[in-house]
Amino acid sequence: MLQCVNDKNTSLRVTSRSLTLRLVSIFYATVGDRIIGRWTNNKYLSGKIASISEEDISILFDDGTTITHPLNHVTAVFADTVPVSVNYKDHVVAAWQGSYKQYIGYVIEVSESQGFKVRFEDNDGAWYQKNQLRIFSNAATVYDG
Fold first, then answer.
1. What is the pTM (predicted TM-score) of this model?
2. Backbone Cα Rg of the chain
3. CA 103 – CA 123 distance, rounded (Å)
4. Is the CA virtual torsion 31, 39, 82, 86 positive or negative?
5. Domain of residue 75, residue span
6. Distance between CA atoms of residues 21 and 6, nearest Å
7. Order of strands, edge to edge, in the sheet holding 3-6?
8. 34: pLDDT confidence band, cut at 50, 70 and 90?
9. Using one digit for the tens of pLDDT, what is the confidence trace for 65-78?
């Protein structure tokens, strides 16, 4: 089991015996846990942790495909849990209507009756309920341009 602890600078230090790596989400990661993981096209899919080593995390996606990411890719994997709260301008991941693929977007409007309006990177938008959203890290990655 890997344990994540706050490192006083909004990222986290992950320890497993002498292993120390930085992640952005607080969660205990074990094989079989439900996660959201990045696929090769910078889109995200739901799946579960297939294996964890001192350097890598392997994911088995719900569609049967697999991928392995280095543990230091801080936005490659995060816990598939309903957020405690969602706010205006939060960076989120949500499945596009009728799709299993998860896309990155921002909350651009909050309505008590409709939920949360999310605008995605391609400028499309849709309304979601809190249980359909996952908070996405604002951390810069090697994939940011």
1. 0.71
2. 15
3. 11
4. positive
5. 33-79
6. 12
7. 3-6, 12-16, 19-23
8. very high
9. 999 999 888 788 88
